[in-house]
Amino acid sequence: MKKIAVMGTGGVGQAYASRFITLGYEVMMGTRNVKEKLADTSRDAYGNPPFSEWYSANRNVRLGTFQEAALFGEIILNATMGAKSIGALKMADVKNLNGKILIDVANPLDFSKGMPPSLLPELSNTNSLGEEIQKTFPDVKVVKTLNTMWNGLMVNPAMLDGGNHTSFICGNSAEAKEKVKEIMKSFGWPEKEILDLGDISSARGTEMYLPLWLRIFGATGNGAFNIKVVSLK
Amino acid sequence: MKKIAVMGTGGVGQAYASRFITLGYEVMMGTRNVKEKLADTSRDAYGNPPFSEWYSANRNVRLGTFQEAALFGEIILNATMGAKSIGALKMADVKNLNGKILIDVANPLDFSKGMPPSLLPELSNTNSLGEEIQKTFPDVKVVKTLNTMWNGLMVNPAMLDGGNHTSFICGNSAEAKEKVKEIMKSFGWPEKEILDLGDISSARGTEMYLPLWLRIFGATGNGAFNIKVVSLK
């Protein structure tokens, strides 16, 4: 049975952990401090119930430190907040990450300059979170994908128009991208709707789409949308 | 007959000028120096023939300075290069712009840091070209739209899937946006595919989509595409 480490315990991490469990994976979620995480009874910024509540209802999911989760996982999924991703992965320890595929679904949102958030200047435009992770951990196979939509759609695209909308994938390793595509197909992504944008620098494109996503969300009040690339044949 | 000033003589300006002529408008294109523009026989960065060639074949279009065009136009369309838009509009002179609708279809692309271009840092993330134009010319009704696609689709959306793909519109004046929507509908945009994102600050979203556009173009080699927003009802 394949072992997955889901770094981050927020809504995105929960969506992936649940979905991987239903697909028969073993899942360990990683967090900074397990005791503090389980003792925390506050709702998150979006009004979601505390992690401990979700965790009680999802007993098949294990919880460990970033380090324990990374050691456990054969594949690593980064669902931490973009501003904290590099720090979390450093806590996971490079030796527990090296040689593995790291699926990065996070976005470098900057909440310090008002709402809707902008992007962290040092991780956008001429850089990206995906690239920064790849530069920081050169022996990890970073694959950026699925960061362009609401987490419910990431892991269950068929809920919207039978999956007839587009996801993007970027990374330096063609082999790693193929393996991640297989996972995406198991989520329900049709192969023709997984668009390979090239190497990890293409993460600049998918991350810089977020400000448009946030404004479409703001204008429509509906996060359950995605974009479909429509081409003239 | 409605008079339009098209600022900028590149491929985008040409697409608009031709389209407005076929729709029965009077069109004057604005450029920095008319004599130099007509004497220039070089191809542009994309290998397109010199403006003078296109101009000879489009005799219904007038050509003037930015100032002459702005004076002529009842509506102004900005199709200059984003990095030069503020300067071009200053040359047009604020008194020739005040009170008018300015349709901004430009993008603040920065070609100084390699290809594909990034965005000008001072005109992205916590600012945008659309906002900068609005701040510089507070008595102009700036409407940002159609900057998210290849110029052929901007003015003739029906060529791709009958127009079944999405355009965005942003601006502080609801009345100006309604008038621009009417023009877009005359181009062939279905009303349901013109998504109002709100005030001019939403231009941050549509302009920051460009890096993704450029990477989709790079990966597919096909610029004749657009995105469609697909929503769960």
Would you write up a description of this structure?
The structure is a homodimer of 233-residue chains. The first copy, chain A, is an alpha/beta fold. Chain A has a single domain (3-220), classed as 3-Layer(aba) Sandwich (Rossmann fold). The first copy, chain A, contains eleven helices and eleven strands. Chain A has an eight-stranded mixed β-sheet, with helices on both faces. A two-stranded antiparallel ribbon of chain A has the order 6-7. In chain A, a hairpin with a 7-residue loop joins strand 6 (109-110) and strand 7. Chain A is globular. The mean pLDDT of chain A is 97. Chain A binds chain B through residues 113, 118-119, 121, 124-126, 159-161, 164-166, 168, 195-198, 202, 204-206, 208-216, 218-220, 222, 224-232, and chain B through 113, 118-119, 121, 124-126, 159-161, 164-166, 168, 195-198, 202, 204-206, 208-216, 218-220, 222, 224-232.
